[in-house]
Design goal:
By secondary structure, the protein is of the alpha+beta class. The protein has 17 helices and 52 strands. A 12-stranded mixed β-sheet has the order 34-31-30-43-38-44-45-52-51-50-47-48, with helices on both faces. It has a 6-stranded antiparallel β-sheet with strand order 5-20-19-23-16-13, with no helix packed on it. β2, α3 and β3 form a beta-alpha-beta unit. The N and C termini lie far apart (115 Å).
Length: 1005
C-alpha cells in the first residue's frame, strides 16, 4: 500500500470539510425549533413534507445549518430570507450571538436560491445563460411594432406532454394517458400551449419551437421543387440577374404517402440555390398551393444551411389578408420545417395565395437556398408495426389521427430529424422514444451554436426549454392536488459552462407566478407542491435551462373544475409567460415589461355618411404594474377576407372610411415595450347603398367557461360528481382542441384500473380527433352580413359600451341606443357562470345586467325596435342553478321585452319553424347547430319562451315538440326575442331570410 497518496488525501479532506467546533453544542431542541420556524415559513406557501435541520457545522465565525431538501421547496425571497435569519438568530444560544448564520439546502445557502430576477442587487459575476443573437431564426418584417423589453431575439423550445402513439404490445395506436374528465393529458396540455402560451410568447417577440405539429388543420399541402405528391400545386422559378441552380447535397422530396422505419423525407430529394444580390433585379422562387378548402393554415418553409448562407432570406406569404413578409436566418435551422405563421387561404389554386422567396439581401454574394413549403397540419403519415413480429404478420399502419394529436416522435421524423433524435430505442419502443426525444431534440436544435457547441445540430441558440404536463392523483375531499415544478442539476454545468441551477430559478419563477395568480384571481387554496430537483429525463437531458411543469392533476375533479375553464387556461398561460419573461430578461440584465391585457368596451359608430370611428378602453392588470398599454394596433378585414398586418395608432380611437355594401371588421391589440396583447373582440360595420336605416348590433356574448358540473353527497356509500355536458357544454375560447367526449362514469368510488378503464371521470372518445368551435367573438359580422343584404347599414359595439367606463384610462363615452331605430342584441350562450368550485368569485356573464336592463328599458320607452337572440334568454333569469332568480329580472323580461321563460333544454334536434301569427313577415324553416362541430359553437340547451303580454305572439316553434322558440311584440315599440342564437343558424340563406323578416316586422314597407 502506498501511504503517501492516502496521507495527502487525508490532508485535503481535512482542509475542505467544514470544522464542526462548537456547533456540537447546538442542542436537539434548538434544531427542532429552527425546523419549526422553517416549517411555519413553508406552510405559508407550499404543501410539503416536514423540514428539519439534519446537521450543523461552523466555518470560522459562520454557523452553518444544513436543512433537508424539503427546505429548498420554499420560494425564497429577500424578505422571507431576512425574516428567517432574524427568527433563527433569536433561537440560538448566547454562545452563537456573534456568529453569522447560514442555512443551506440543495447545496446552496437559502439566499443563493433567490432567483436572480428578484434580487435587488445583481451579482455581475453571476452565471447567466445569455447566448448572443444579432439575427434570430425568423423575423416578421411586416409587423408594425417590435418589443424592446420583452422576448425579442429569444428562442424557446417547449412541448405539451404526450401524444397518440403506437403500442406494439397491443398492436394498436393509443393515448399515453387515460381518457378522463372529457379530455386526455395528451391533448389537454395543448389547450394551454397552442391557443394561449405560444401566442403570448410570440407576442413578446420570441420564436417558439415545438416538437409536435402546432396546426390542427387536418388538410396539408406540400409544394416542392422535386414535385407535388397528390395535388396540383406548382413550384416555379423566375431568374433575373442571378439564376437558380441545383444545390449540392440532399434535400426534401415528398415521394410517398406514408413513411416507415427510419425513412427521412429530407434525405430523399434536392434543393435549389442562388446567390444574393443587393441591387439590381431580383430572382424569385414561387410555391403556389392547391388549397382543398377555405380556412386557416400554418405555413412552414424548408431550406438547407450552407457555409455561406444568408441571414435574411426574404419570404413573402400572399394570403386573404394581404401580404406578410419574413426574413429567415438560413445560417441556422436548415433541413427541417420552419414555421412562419398561420394565414387564411381560399380554396383552389390562385396566384393571390402563394409563398415566394427572393434573393435580395442586405449583403450580396451570400447564398439563399429553397426547398419545400408545407401548408396545413395534416394527418399522421408515419406508419408503425411491431419491431419484433409476433405470430401474425402485421402490416404497417398510420395513426389515422390528425398529426397534431400524435406524439413528438412522429412529427420529428416527418420534420427530418436524425433517427438518433426521435428513436433512442432504435424503433423498439415508441413510448420511451416519445418522452426521450423531446430533450434530445432540444440539444439537436442548439447543436453547433454557442449554447451546445460540441454537438452537431441546427445551430439555433435555444435560450430555455419547457415541458408542460399535468399529473395524476386524487383526493377524497375535493381538495386541490395543485402545481409541481421539476428541474435537474445533475452534472452541475450545461454544455456552455453555465450552472444548471439556473433551471431552479426558472422553475421557481414560473411556479410562483402560476400559484400566485390562481390564488389571487380564482382559488385561494390552490396547492403549491414544491420544486423537485430530480433526474426526470425531460428535465435532465436538455443542455439549456429547463422546467418540467405538472400543473394540476387531470385525475382530480377539484382540479379539473378549474382546468376545463378557458379563463383559467389563459391566466395560467399568462403566468407561465411572465415567469419565462422574468427569467430570460434576468439573464440579459434587462428590465422586463409584461404585455398588456386585451382592450375592452369597443364601439364602432358612424361619424359621417361613410366614415366610422372605432373607440376602446385599455384594461389595467391588477397583477402586473408594467402591463400598461402605450399604443395600439388596429387590424382590418374587408368582406370574407382575412385581417391585414395592422395599423399602429397612438390613442384609443381610429377613424376610417367604409366601402359600400361590404362588411368591414376591426379588432384591436394594445402594445407596450413588452409586446402586444391578445386581440379584442371583433366589431363590424357596413354601409348599404340606399339604406333603409341603420342597425346597432350589440355584442353581448363574451362568455367563455367550463362545462356545468355537479356534486352529490354520499348516499348508500355512493358519492357522485362530474360534468354535465348535455346541460351546458361550456364555451371554449375560439375553439377547443382537447375535448374527447362526454363524461360517462360519475361514481367517485370507481378506481382507475388502466387507461382503458379510467374509473371516476371516465369519458367517451368520439370527439377526440375533432376541433370544437367556441366563442370567436366575431358575431357582429355574421349578423351584419344579413343586415346588409336586407338593405340596412349597421354599426356595432360591445355590451359593456352601453354603460359608462369607470376606469381612469377610459374615454367616458356611452353608446346611446336611442340614436338607432333598430338594435340587434347578440346573447349567444351568455349566462351566469362560476369559476371552479364557485363561491370564491362573483358569477360572470349574466344575460341582462342591471345596467343593460336600464339601457334597454329606456330605449323601448322611446319607441325603439330590439331583436334579442340567445340560448339562455329565459333560463338565466328564471332557472340558473347557480343564481337565485330575481323578481326584477323576470319583471324586465315580461314587462319590457314581453316574453317569459317556459323551459330550458327545450329541443335536441336543432330545428324550428315559423308559425301563424299576426306578424306575417315571419315565414320559413330554420336549423341551428345542436351538435358539437368545428364551425359554430353548439346550442345544446335552447330555451322555450312564451308571450308575456297582450300584443306579444309566438312566431316560431321547435319542430320536435311545438314549444315556443320565438316571441314578437308590437305596441308602442317592438321586440323580437329568440330562444336560440341567430348566429348558430346553419346556413347563410336561412340567416338572410330571418333577418329580412325581423327588419320587415320592425319596418313594414
Amino acid at each position: 500500500m502506498n501511504v503517501r497518496p492516502i496521507f495527502l488525501l487525508s490532508l485535503l479532506t481535512a482542509f475542505l470539510l467544514p470544522r464542526t467546533g462548537s456547533a456540537q453544542e447546538l442542542s436537539a431542541e434548538v434544531r427542532q425549533s429552527i425546523g419549526n420556524l422553517l416549517n411555519a415559513t413553508a406552510q405559508k406557501e407550499i404543501s410539503v413534507g416536514r423540514i428539519r435541520i439534519d446537521s450543523v457545522a461552523t466555518e470560522g465565525r459562520t454557523l452553518q445549518l444544513f436543512a433537508n431538501m424539503n427546505c429548498a421547496y420554499i420560494p425564497f425571497r429577500e424578505k422571507n430570507v431576512a425574516e428567517i435569519y432574524k427568527g433563527v438568530s433569536a433561537l440560538l444560544p448566547a454562545a452563537f450571538a456573534k456568529y453569522k448564520v447560514q442555512i443551506r439546502t440543495n447545496n446552496h445557502s437559502i439566499e443563493e436560491l433567490i432567483p436572480r430576477a428578484l434580487r435587488s442587487k445583481k451579482e455581475k459575476r453571476a452565471s447567466t445563460f445569455n447566448p448572443a443573437v444579432s439575427v434570430p431564426l425568423v423575423t416578421d418584417v411586416s409587423t408594425p411594432y417590435t418589443p424592446t423589453h420583452g422576448l425579442q431575439n429569444r428562442h424557446i423550445a417547449l412541448w405539451q406532454s404526450h401524444g397518440w402513439y403506437y403500442e406494439p404490445k397491443l398492436t394498436r395506436w393509443e393515448w399515453q394517458r387515460a381518457r378522463i374528465f372529457q379530455t386526455v393529458e395528451d391533448l389537454y396540455t395543448q389547450s394551454y400551449v397552442l391557443p394561449f402560451l405560444v401566442p403570448m410568447l410570440e407576442n413578446a417577440g420570441a420564436y417558439v419551437l415545438l416538437p409536435r405539429e402546432r396546426d390542427c388543420q387536418t388538410a396539408e399541402v406540400v409544394i416542392d421543387n422535386d414535385g407535388c405528391l397528390g395535388n396540383r400545386s406548382t413550384y416555379t422559378e423566375h431568374n433575373a440577374d442571378k439564376a437558380w441552380t441545383q444545390g449540392d447535397g440532399e434535400g426534401f422530396a415528398h415521394l410517398r404517402n406514408q413513411y416507415i422505419d427510419f425513412e427521412n423525407p429530407f434525405k430523399e430529394g434536392t434543393f435549389r440555390t442562388i446567390e444574393t444580390i443587393r441591387k439590381g433585379k431580383e430572382s424569385t422562387a414561387e410555391w403556389i398551393p392547391e388549397i382543398p378548402a377555405d380556412g386557416r393554415y400554418a405555413v412552414y418553409v424548408s431550406y438547407q444551411t450552407l457555409p455561406n448562407s444568408t441571414d435574411d432570406a426574404l419570404y413573402t406569404v400572399h394570403h386573404k389578408g394581404g401580404v406578410t413578409q419574413f426574413k429567415v436566418n438560413q445560417r441556422m435551422g436548415g433541413g427541417t420545417w420552419i414555421y412562419l405563421g398561420t394565414f387564411g387561404f381560399s380554396a383552389g389554386q390562385d396566384n393571390a395565395c402563394k409563398v415566394t422567396l427572393s434573393n435580395r439581401s442586405a449583403k450580396a454574394g451570400r447564398t439563399v437556398t429553397a426547398d419545400a413549403v408545407k401548408i396545413g397540419g395534416g394527418m399522421g403519415n408515419i406508419a408503425r408495426r411491431p419491431s419484433v413480429m409476433p405470430q401474425a404478420d402485421y402490416p404497417y399502419e398510420t395513426s389515422g389521427y390528425p398529426r397534431f394529436c400524435e406524439g413528438a416522435r412522429y412529427w420529428l421524423q416527418w420534420a427530418g430529424m436524425p433517427d438518433s433524435v426521435y428513436s433512442e430505442s432504435h424503433g423498439k419502443n415508441d413510448y420511451t422514444d416519445d418522452y426521450k426525444c423531446r430533450g434530445i431534440w432540444v440539444n439537436y436544435l442548439a447543436g453547433g451554436s454557442s449554447v451546445n457547441p460540441k454537438e452537431k445540430g441546427l445551430n439555433i441558440p435555444v435560450n430555455m426549454a419547457f415541458a408542460f404536463h399535468s399529473d395524476a392523483g386524487t383526493t377524497l375531499n375535493d381538495s386541490i392536488i395543485g402545481t409541481l415544478g421539476i428541474y435537474c442539476t445533475k452534472g452541475e454545468k450545461f454544455a456552455n459552462g453555465t450552472s444548471r441551477y439556473l433551471s431552479h430559478d426558472l422553475t421557481d419563477l414560473v411556479q410562483s407566478n402560476i400559484v400566485h395568480d390562481i390564488r389571487t384571481l380564482y382559488e385561494p387554496n390552490w396547492s403549491r407542491r414544491g420544486k423537485w430537483n430530480q433526474s426526470y429525463y425531460e428535465a435532465r437531458v436538455p443542455q439549456v435551462p429547463t422546467m418540467l411543469l405538472e400543473l394540476l392533476s387531470h385525475q382530480n375533479f377539484a382540479d379539473m373544475r378549474y382546468g376545463l375553464d378557458p379563463r383559467f387556461r389563459f391566466t395560467v398561460s399568462r403566468a407561465i409567460y411572465k415567469g419565462m419573461l422574468q427569467f430570460l430578461c434576468s439573464q440579459y440584465n434587462m428590465d422586463y415589461v409584461v404585455q398588456p391585457l386585451p382592450v375592452e368596451r369597443l364601439s364602432l359608430r358612424m361619424t359621417g355618411e361613410r366614415e366610422v370611428e372605432l373607440t376602446w378602453s385599455p384594461v389595467a392588470d391588477p397583477l402586473e404594474p408594467t402591463a400598461t398599454a402605450e399604443k395600439y394596433i388596429v387590424y382590418t378585414r374587408i368582406g370574407d377576407g382575412d385581417f391585414d398586418n395592422g395599423t399602429p395608432v397612438d390613442k384609443n380611437s381610429y377613424r376610417t372610411t367604409l366601402p359600400a355594401d361590404v362588411v368591414c371588421s376591426y379588432k384591436v391589440v394594445a402594445v407596450n415595450k413588452g409586446g402586444k396583447s391578445f386581440p379584442s373582440e371583433v366589431l363590424s360595420a357596413g354601409y348599404a347603398t340606399n339604406a333603409q336605416g341603420t342597425v346597432l348590433v350589440v355584442n353581448g356574448f363574451d362568455r367563455i367557461s367550463a362545462p356545468a358540473d355537479f356534486t352529490i353527497a354520499a348516499t348508500d356509500s355512493t358519492s357522485l360528481a362530474g360534468f354535465l355536458d348535455d346541460l351546458d357544454h361550456g364555451v371554449p375560447y375560439l375553439r377547443d382542441i382537447s375535448y374527447i367526449g362526454k363524461m360517462k362514469e360519475f361514481r367517485r368510488s370507481i378506481p382507475w384500473m388502466d387507461d382503458d378503464a379510467s374509473g371516476f371521470g371516465d369519458s367517451y372518445g368520439n370527439y377526440e380527433t375533432q376541433v370544437i368551435a367556441g366563442n370567436t367573438f366575431d358575431y357582429p359580422a355574421v349578423h351584419g352580413k344579413a343586415i346588409l343584404k336586407a338593405g340596412y347599414s349597421f354599426v356595432s359595439c360591445s355590451l359593456s359600451g352601453l354603460s359608462p367606463d369607470p376606469s381612469p384610462a377610459g374615454r367616458g363615452e356611452v353608446t346611446p341606443l336611442n340614436e338607432y331605430r333598430y338594435v340587434d342584441l347578440i346573447l349567444g350562450k351568455q349566462c351566469q357562470s362560476k369559476m371552479g368550485r364557485g363561491g370564491v368569485t362573483a358569477l360572470e356573464f349574466k344575460t341582462f345586467s342591471k345596467e343593460t336592463q336600464e339601457a334597454i328599458t329606456a330605449y323601448c320607452k322611446q319607441g325603439g325596435n330590439i331583436f334579442v337572440s340567445g340560448a339562455y334568454v329565459g333560463s338565466d333569469l328564471w332557472d340558473n342553478r347557480l343564481a337565485k332568480a330575481e323578481d326584477a329580472d323576470k319583471k324586465f323580461a315580461m314587462e319590457v321585452l314581453k316574453y317569459k321563460w317556459r323551459v330550458g333544454q327545450a329541443a335536441t334536434m336543432g330545428k324550428a319553424t315559423s308559425v301563424a301569427s299576426p306578424f306575417t313577415a315571419f315565414t320559413g324553416n330554420y336549423s341551428f347547430h345542436n351538435e358539437l362541430n368545428p364551425d359554430t359553437y353548439v346550442v345544446e340547451s335552447p330555451d322555450a319562451i312564451e308571450p308575456a303580454s297582450e300584443g306579444a305572439h309566438t312566431i316560431m316553434r321547435y319542430t320536435e315538440n311545438n314549444l315556443s322558440a320565438g316571441v314578437a311584440y308590437s305596441g308602442d315599440y317592438k321586440t323580437c326575442i329568440m330562444g336560440f342564437p341567430f348566429e348558430s343558424i346553419r346556413t347563410e340563406a336561412e340567416r338572410d331570410a330571418l333577418m329580412k323578416a325581423i327588419l320587415s316586422f320592425f319596418n313594414p314597407q
